[in-house]
Amino acid sequence: MERAPGGSPVGVDDPYAHVRRCDHVTDEGKCRWAVEQRHRDPEFADARSVEEFRCPAADPDGDWAWADCPHFRSTTAGTECIRCGLEERRLAHEDVRPLLEEHHLSYADGSARGKRQLDHEITVSLCRWCHAKVHNSWARIDDDASPDPDAVAEAETRKGRELDELSFESASERFGDRD
């Protein structure tokens, strides 16, 4: 199992198996990085330009895997825990800890993976409770898991506060009849 720089497990054997798409790939399958960051790697940008900026890793018939791209990145959108399915409930105007956290599956620490260096950022969303279980035990992110009872309680508390904010109270109910 892959490990964080501190030695704790990250919950996967292959981070690339949990990637849906690269952050730099457009809906048309083009490489946005090659267009916007051309100055950082002109050779890569020129190669993509020759192919009309087509991403060879995003092409199902292509000859690249995500790990082959030198500028690959896949970061989470953070709407639900990928392990237990708990949905994020953010409270506007309140400084409370989020239910979901970003969990790194790979680290740019120079550790070798076969002949390749792990230098790609790959993150997923985990609730705080699953995040702790993955780092503090042998729990895996692809386990069939249910939300922790404490996580459900916190989510329901936040849902109740959301509903209170959305409730409608007429002026006559708020102020009573003032005849």
UniProtKB/TrEMBL annotation:
The UniProt annotation puts the region (Disordered) at 140-179
Looking up Pfam families in the UniProt record yields: DUF7097 (PF23382)
Superkingdom of origin organism: Archaea
Q: Composition bias, kind Basic and acidic residues: at what positions?
A: 155-164
**Which regions are flagged for Acidic residues bias?**
144-153
**Protein's UniProt name:** Uncharacterized protein
> What is the species listed in this Swiss-Prot or TrEMBL entry?
Halapricum desulfuricans
